Amino acid sequence: MGGEGGTVDECDMPGVVCECDEDLDCGEFEFCDMSGTGRLCECLTGYEGDPCAWGTLPKDPGFQDVPMAWTTDKGAMIDAAAVGGVDPGQTSFPGDALCSYGSVSQVVSMPPLEGSQPFVAEVSYQTSDPFLFSESSLAIGLGGAWRSDLDSPYSFETRSYCLGEAAYGGDVEIELSNGSRPYSCPTTDDLNIDRFEIVPAGPGQCPELGEFNNGDFEGTNGWEFTVAGSSTAGIEDGSGAEGSRAGIVRHATRCNNGWMSGSFSVPSASTMPSPALEFWWNATDGYLPRLSFDGNRDMFAELEGTGVPQTARYCLPPWTQGGVHTVRFELPGVSGACADALPRELVVDNTRIVNDPSCGTSEGVLDPGFESAPLPLFGAGFTSRGSVAAVVDPAAARSGQGVLEISVSFRCAQPSYVFNVIPPAPDVTGGPALRFWHRVPANPVSSAFARVGQSTLALPENGEWTEAVLCLDPGLVGRPAEVRLGLYGGDGLCASFGSTEYGYFDDLELTTDPACPTE
Ligand SMILES: [Ca+2]
Ligand SMILES: [Ca+2]
Ligand SMILES: [Ca+2]
Q1: Does residue 216 sit in the same domain as residue 351?
Q2: DSSP string spanning 349-403?
Q3: Ligand 2: distance of its center to the CA of 213 in Å?
Q4: Quick one: pLDDT at residue 17?
């Protein structure tokens, strides 16, 4: 062990014990600690013992009210006396906590991704409602990357969520909250979390950073196939890109619905500034598979099958960065007599995360000027009675080349761009808001709107670029909040009104505004 630049290495001095020069000299889950006298192999943060093994993180995983562990906010509480599920104690979110997005949180020190191991957040929770129709759901924030579980188990169930890059490498805040505000407040719903612990993932359970878990389908792990009745699904030899293996969903009759879902780890913005999801796919001509994230089927993209293999690319929004998410490729049912024979299939292969500079590097809202056009827009679904797309049209755009164009030609249709933004913190100038510009002519039939949660803003139709401010829920600061921009085709029978009406949107901006609530 030599000295550097002529200085004497302290390890050469009598009585000083040195085990290492660098991390590579140490064992598994160890690093070379150079902070004291000498250089010693020590366990990475979170690990303990000899040999180093993963410890217990966070403090008080069972919610037994251990001091200096969890911080509660906005009505969430720790109930050490509760029976719990896996173990005694729970954190409880009564109705008022759900209505204000209460939370429990704790900052933990996490090891670096490199040198440690893949982890999952293992959480046991339940939702309840006296009418057995629960509106509460669970949301987990790990280092600012949020993941919602849209299921509402009535009795305690344990689920695992792979950790993304934002959950490694230093102080990481764990935040547990509800995923969506109850439809009516006050509410008798509640949410109880029995246990939350970070534990090593099983073999093949989690995707590697920047990758899908078995993205090329050449393995057997990583994908779940959900079909019913006469449908079949799975990984099949020879159906994929260049005759390789691929995932396939195959329906025989009209109403059959089914999907395949896999997981992917989106790097943090500092590692990959402009992530996009790319995949190879093919579907029977005329059918419309759907793509959605984290089980949220309201926000999706619609693909148009042609019977010819295609490669698609969608920019990944900022709320996915630093986290692990699931993607669902769905081949929906077709309305009509369910027993009708209607053979059709969806094949997917080579799912991967790529960096695409045209997706931009905007924080909080994806591509606010729609300059990634003509890439297809995620969240522009339900377009069969109109259209929703980012288009290249400098004459129509307020700035740049791209603009969001929405059209409608049917009564009762509501073609919309549905997307998540991350509301900024309130400040002295006001509460969180989405500011945007719209240009809508005096359409005879349809009306233009912006919506967040249950509040809808009617947009004036004056044919000029006009600024609008949509207040965002201050309870969702730093977390994904769903927004819709759209045209409504008007009340009445769902039939064509004989013309096509348009609206344009451009230059979204997250800001604070004095007209918006700060808490
Ligand atoms: Ca417990
Ligand atoms: Ca393949
Ligand atoms: Ca633009």
Answers
A1: yes
A2: EEEEEEE-GGG---SSSS-TT-TTTTS--TT----TTEEEEEEE-TTT-SSSSEE
A3: 13
A4: 78
User: Which ligand approaches the C-alpha of residue 349 most closely?
Assistant: 2
Report which bound ligand comes closest to the CA of 89. 1
> Are 351 and 479 within one domain?
no
Q: Are residues 166 and 215 in the same domain?
A: no
- Structural domain ending residue among the three candidates 314, 343, 361: 361
Could you tell me if 196 and 221 lie in one domain?
no
> Residues 94-108, buried b or exposed e (16+ Cβ, 10 A)?
bbebbbbbbbbbbeb
Q: Establish if 23 belongs to a structural domain.
A: yes
Number of domains in the chain: 4
Ligand positioned closest to the Cα atom of 244: 2
Please report which ligand is nearest the Cα atom of 437: 3
* Ligand with an atom nearest the CA of residue 398: 3
In angstroms, what is the span from residue 82 Cα to ligand 1's centroid? 8
What is the spatial distance between Cα 247 and Cα 229, in angstroms, rounded to a whole number? 19
- Determine the distance separating the centroid of ligand 3 and the alpha carbon of 467, expressed in angstroms: 14
416 in the same domain as 431: yes
Q: Is 468 a domain residue?
A: yes
Any domain includes 127: yes
Query: What mean pLDDT do residues 475-483 have?
Result: 95
**What residues make up the domain containing 245?**
207-361
For 428-473, what is each residue's pLDDT tens digit?
A: 999 999 999 999 999 999 999 999 988 999 999 999 999 999 999 9
